[in-house]
Write a structure and sequence with these properties.
alpha+beta; BirA Bifunctional Protein, domain 2; 7-stranded mixed β-sheet; two-stranded antiparallel ribbon; 11 helices; binds phenylalanine
């Protein structure tokens, strides 16, 4: 048989295979041990020399073509088998899969994001600091002397002391980032104004109840510039509370003591639940204590490498949970970390 006749013969056999088993038998006959195809290709050696190149080329082309025809027929059988299987079952591969449930943002995250957006729009930058902090940044640099009651073990989670290194602790507030930021900016050549916010997690060894958590969130604010005054502080705080509580607010300042501010204040907002008339939330006073703040103490500016004769500043430390509780009317701080999905799912799904 010549090349053309062989080709026809083999291709016809492949096309005629009725099922995968018949096709497999043909495969063995053509390509298995003593297979017809390789034998045919090898028959080139029996030809006179001048006929070999032309025959070799043609025989190889037929071999490739037959291989492809086998593979194509195999695919046909596989596709037919799959179609048959699908036709007999209720499975519809074109149906969309089940929709994965999307989570919701934690209410603290919602309010924190809003606050950061607001403060960045007012020219503040977002700063970060470590949760495991040194005694120096958490206390000493903030003008909190060694015998201050805040250092006592009932308030502070101390880390195991490492020989040669100072003592570490879980930061009890976000204020240590004040001095960290000032020191870093002074090293880089300080240019006023400095305006930063520092959202972050803080820890205190407290007995947990309706209004106290051992792990809580604060947002620190710090502004340092020439001629910064209490009026700037009040204006900034009012703007921030108006946006977050979504209504006009009145504020008042009472003296408050924090070693790192002088003067220090407790800023109160008129009660959002009774508009200042007096209710159980504000304990009939009409006011809610919302954030401690004050003018940065000269010693703290000095620790940051900034000259207190030339610059002044204000700082505030907002308790984020407190703001969230006022905003959504939540009366138990333990809800935030309680992991109850029924609580968490009440907050809007926000894509950011
Ligand atoms: N760091 C203080 C606290 O956690 C709050 C504070 C911050 C007070 C900034 C004044 C200025 O209690």
């Amino acid at each position: 048989m010549d090349t053309t006749a062989r080709r026809e013969h083999w291709l016809r056999a492949i096309a005629a295979a009725a099922d995968p088993a018949a096709l497999a038998a043909i495969d063995t006959r053509l390509f298995g041990p003593k297979g017809e195809v390789p034998e045919f290709v090898r028959s080139v050696t029996a030809l006179p020399k001048d006929e070999r190149p032309a025959f070799g080329k043609a025989a190889n082309a037929v071999k490739v073509e037959v291989e492809q025809a086998l593979a194509a027929r195999r695919e046909q059988f596989a596709a037919a088998a799959l179609a048959q299987e699908l036709a007999g079952s209720a499975f519809d591969p074109t149906e969309p899969g089940p929709r994965a449930a999307r989570g919701t943002l934690h209410p603290i995250t919602i309010v924190q994001n809003e606050l950061v957006d607001l403060f960045t729009s007012m020219g503040f930058r977002w700063e970060d600091g470590p949760e495991v902090e040194s005694e120096y940044f958490n206390f000493d640099a903030l003008n909190i002397p060694g015998d201050h009651p805040a250092r006592e073990s009932q308030d502070t989670f101390w880390c195991k002391a490492q020989p040669g290194l100072g003592r570490n602790l879980l930061r009890t507030h976000t204020s240590p980032v004040q001095v960290r930021t000032m020191q870093r900016l002074t090293r880089q050549g300080f240019h006023a104004p400095l305006k930063v916010v520092v959202p972050g997690r803080c820890f205190r060894s407290e007995t947990v109840d309706k209004t106290h958590e051992h792990t809580f969130y604060q947002m620190e604010g710090l502004v340092v510039d020439r001629d910064v005054s209490t009026a700037n502080l009040i204006h900034t705080m009012k703007t921030c509370l108006r946006v977050i509580l979504e209504r006009d607010v009145q504020v008042r300042l009472r003296p408050g003591f924090f070693p790192f501010v002088e003067p220090g204040f407790e800023l109160d907002v008129n009660c959002p639940f009774c508009s200042g008339r007096g209710c159980s939330v504000c304990k009939q006073s009409g006011w809610i204590e919302i954030l401690p703040c004050g003018m940065v103490h000269p010693n703290v500016l000095r620790q940051g490498g900034i000259d207190p004769e030339a610059y002044t500043g204000f700082a505030f430390g907002m308790g984020l949970q407190r703001v969230v509780m006022l905003r959504y009317g939540i009366d138990d701080i333990r809800q935030f970390m309680g992991g109850d999905l029924r609580f968490l799912r009440q907050f809007p799904e926000v894509a950011r």
